[in-house]
Amino acid sequence: MALSAAKTGKTGSIRRSRGAALALAVAAVATAVTLAPAVSASAAGYTESAGPWSTATALTGADGRQTLVDVKSAGDGTVFALWRDEAAGATTWDFKVAVRAAGGTTWSAARTLVTGEGASAEAELAVTPGGGAAVTWRTGSTAENAVSAVAAIYDPATAAWSDPATIATTDGSFVSTPELAAASDGTLTAVWYQDTGTLASDIRTATLAPGATAWSDARTIGSVSGSYVYDLSVAVAPDGAATAAWDAYGFFSGDHAITTATRATATGDWSAAAVLPGTTATSGNVQLTMDAADATTVLWYSNTDGNTGSGDLRSATRSTPSGSWGAAQTAVTSFGFSDRSEPLAAPDGDLTYVWAGWSSSAGEYVVRTVTRDAATGTWSTVRTLSTGYVNAQVSAAIGADGTVQVLWPQVPSIDDGDDHYLEWAVRADGKWSTATALNSAPVPAVPNTDALAGEVAAGPDGRATVVWRTAVAASAGSYTSQLSAQSQTLLAAPKVTARTTLTGTARTGAKLTCAASWTGDNATVAWSWLRDGTTIAGATGRTRTLTSADYTHKVSCRATVANAAGSVRSTSTAAAVAVGTALKVTKAPAVTGTAKVGSRLTAAHGTWSPAATSYTYAWKRNGTAIGGATKSTYTLVKADKGRKITVKVTAHRYAWTNGTATTAAVTVR
């Protein structure tokens, strides 16, 4: 599938593995990573940079199978794609990663990080502001009494991945895949939990300094007993302050306890773990983010309707890592237990949440979003982004400029599940775009798998990179798939492809039209007119009717084409303005008075278009001019008796050709 050239950070996807057995349950929420903003909060980075979509690039062959794990953009714009890959004929899966360098257009060859994994094996991807990245996963087995959490590190200086380095090792008990987040200097913080006995676990953490090859010694920041750690999330502010949050599910009580621990500074100690105020025994699905000003927000699901799985999305915020939590807020009501994504924090503190969930009013799954305004602290009303049936999938990302990119697969309706489209929407400058299908041709359904799935990353200027998987049915009950990538290119300044021209006759009263041709995405054109090279005030239309002020002067027009990347202008050849056409009579002149020798006749000059400014008269006797009779009045003499008297009226206006009309004749008695 090739995405069409539609014009119009941190990522989150709700399709994350939870693990098969409750004894090993890990509700691994995507890490909430907040990086130092590369653009000021007030900058319109997206509108200044987003150009058309690039040509699609295949990241894999088409004979194997893949499952996307994550796509993220580092602070400098380097993009990383992580996926599981099952080679043709293989029975196990590998974790592979590809990189597109900052400012580049090509992707690296896929690098295999680990082999021999299962189809549901977990891995986590984190990025750093300087273009680095880390991937964590688990290795070993409890049967062999050798379970470890490991990480591979990407060094942007050498464009190479390290060999896996051990973060934590157990003696055969369970260890979770570490959650990762990065500070602005590139220091990585990992948080995980590992079993310490039956129904007992420690939440542990370690850090990796930039350039280091070994992780720091692990330390315990919390413990649970008689419970399973059901959710775990970590967020790190640009200055290195960090918060970890987890949900401990009581095995005997069935109650949940959402707990947090905090590192107030990059090198400080972690606080004692404490239950989050405002949460209850029915709270769960904890998610976490920290913004550039160190404000921390925790979101969680709160069951309000017994065992039906319907509840509220709740949040609590504190302004500093060492401050007190504010009162709990309800962000969304009628929120499903599985309607989970992650909070996306903008540099100005605005917080956006995007999720896919069942809508009873629509009768199908939809993609919805809410935003909390940092200035007022209130959550917006819920907005639906999707326009069809959504297969419970959505990916969202936020750029350092605050632009939110969202991607999801949908079909026109539940009854028409064969036509799959990747839908894309963006929130820039506080406004959501209308959802757009990126693929012009629908992707047909494939048995036993998602025919179409994708992840989106937002670069530091908000521009989107999309990696998607298209599946194709092979033999009965089997399929193959392929990964492809596409991104929004850098917006280029417009170019004039055909010089501005004038059409029409250059004379007073005539209409001239200005025309030009140009290329440029999101470009607008401004028209202006010039008289002898000087701009004419107020003349901003594409057409202009010439006035008497233009007569004997040279007139030209100019097209100024601009977008956020720059502007270009083109001016036509100047045309000398000639005299306008003759004035036209709209009400004929007429003679009034008594047609009798000795009486005075008066000529009414009539009405003219355009209006005349002066008139001249020529009285005639039987068609011959009467000498000296050139005023608007004439006194009849004996020579006029029995003759026919007319008046020729000439209308005058500067810059126009004179108009003439003759009155009807009167016979003198």
Describe the overall structure.
The chain is built from 1 helix and 58 strands. The chain is an all-beta fold. The longest helix is centred in the N-terminal third of the chain and has 5 residues, at 45-49. Strands 1, 30, 31, 32, 33, 34 and 35 form a 7-stranded antiparallel sheet that branches. Strands 2-18-19-20-21 form a 5-stranded mixed sheet, with no helix packed on it. The termini are far apart.
Distance between the termini: 96 Å
Based on CA atoms alone, the radius of gyration comes out at: 38 Å
Give unreliable regions as ranges.
1-43
Largest sheet: 7 strands, antiparallel
- Helicity, as a percent range: under 10%
Provide the residue-averaged pLDDT.
89
Keywords:
single chain; 1 helix; mainly beta; 669 residues; disordered N terminus; elongated; 5-stranded mixed β-sheet; 7-stranded antiparallel β-sheet; 58 strands
Topology of this protein?
Layout: E1 10-13, E2 27-28, H1 45-49, E3 50-53, E4 57-58, E5 65-73, E6 79-86, E7 93-100, E8 111-117, E9 123-127, E10 133-141, E11 146-155, E12 160-161, E13 165-170, E14 179-182, E15 188-197, E16 200-208, E17 219-225, E18 227-236, E19 242-250, E20 256-263, E21 274-275, E22 283-290, E23 296-303, E24 310-318, E25 329-336, E26 342-345, E27 351-359, E28 364-372, E29 383-384, E30 389-390, E31 395-398, E32 404-411, E33 421-428, E34 431-432, E35 436-437, E36 452-458, E37 464-473, E38 479-490, E39 495-503, E40 511-519, E41 524-531, E42 534-535, E43 543-545, E44 554-563, E45 566-571, E46 575-576, E47 580-582, E48 584-587, E49 590-592, E50 600-604, E51 607-609, E52 614-621, E53 624-625, E54 633-635, E55 644-652, E56 656-657, E57 659-662, E58 666-667
Parallel strand pairs: 2-18, 47-56
Antiparallel strand pairs: 1-31, 3-38, 4-38, 5-6, 6-7, 7-8, 9-10, 10-11, 11-12, 11-13, 14-15, 15-16, 16-17, 18-19, 19-20, 20-21, 22-23, 23-24, 24-25, 26-27, 27-28, 28-29, 30-32, 31-32, 32-33, 33-34, 33-35, 36-37, 37-38, 39-40, 40-43, 41-42, 41-44, 44-45, 44-46, 48-51, 49-50, 50-54, 52-53, 52-55, ...
